[in-house]
């Protein structure tokens, strides 16, 4: 570009009065404070969303209360496979056996606790389990199982 063309460009540019872009100091500080509060609220909102997303990614999916077991399913599967007559063990069957075992043990423990507390003791003894087996009708099939 030649020199004459550059001077035409410089002359064609308008010079703005910068005072029109700036207001008084009080208005600027008020605008700045309100913008700062607005931006910090938006930032907190974004941070909450990001935190929730990170928490969702890190926490394993929660199992339903009906599928949660207290006894180890893998160990019960191994016990079931020890039977020579059993060739295939389905996961539904293992789950049902696990839940049934839990309910059975819970019933035995509650009944034994009842007899233990009637005798004003703090520990469950073998005699409490014998008493449960002999006195609870649904557990009468266990008679003689504790004789060892």
UniProtKB/TrEMBL annotation:
Main localization of the protein described in the UniProt heading: nucleus
Swiss-Prot/TrEMBL keywords: Nucleus
Any one GO cellular component localisation term in the record: epsilon DNA polymerase complex
Any Pfam family: CBFD_NFYB_HMF
InterPro entries listed in its UniProt record: CBFA_NFYB_domain, Histone-fold, Transcr_DNA_Rep_Reg
One Gene Ontology MF term: protein heterodimerization activity
Localization, UniProt: Nucleus
Domain Transcription factor CBF/NF-Y/archaeal histone: 69-132
Protein's GO biological process: DNA-templated DNA replication
PANTHER family according to UniProt: DNA POLYMERASE EPSILON SUBUNIT 4, HISTONE-LIKE TRANSCRIPTION FACTOR CCAAT-RELATED
Full protein name: DNA polymerase epsilon subunit 4
Species this chain originates from: Papilio machaon
Origin organism lineage: Eukaryota, Metazoa, Ecdysozoa, Arthropoda, Hexapoda
């Amino acid at each position: 570009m030649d020199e004459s063309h550059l001077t035409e460009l410089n002359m064609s540019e308008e010079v703005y009065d910068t005072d029109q872009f700036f207001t008084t100091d009080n208005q600027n500080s008020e605008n700045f404070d309100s913008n700062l509060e607005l931006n910090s609220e938006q930032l907190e909102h974004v941070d909450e969303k990001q935190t929730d997303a990170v928490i969702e990614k890190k926490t394993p999916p929660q199992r339903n209360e009906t599928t949660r077991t207290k006894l180890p399913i893998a160990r019960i599967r191994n016990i079931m496979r020890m039977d020579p007559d059993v060739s295939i063990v389905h996961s539904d069957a293992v789950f049902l056996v696990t839940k049934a075992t839990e309910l059975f043990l819970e019933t035995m423990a509650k009944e034994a606790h009842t007899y233990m507390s009637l005798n004003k003791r703090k520990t469950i003894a073998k005699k409490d389990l014998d008493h449960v087996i002999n006195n609870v009708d649904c557990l009468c099939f266990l008679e003689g199982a504790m004789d060892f």
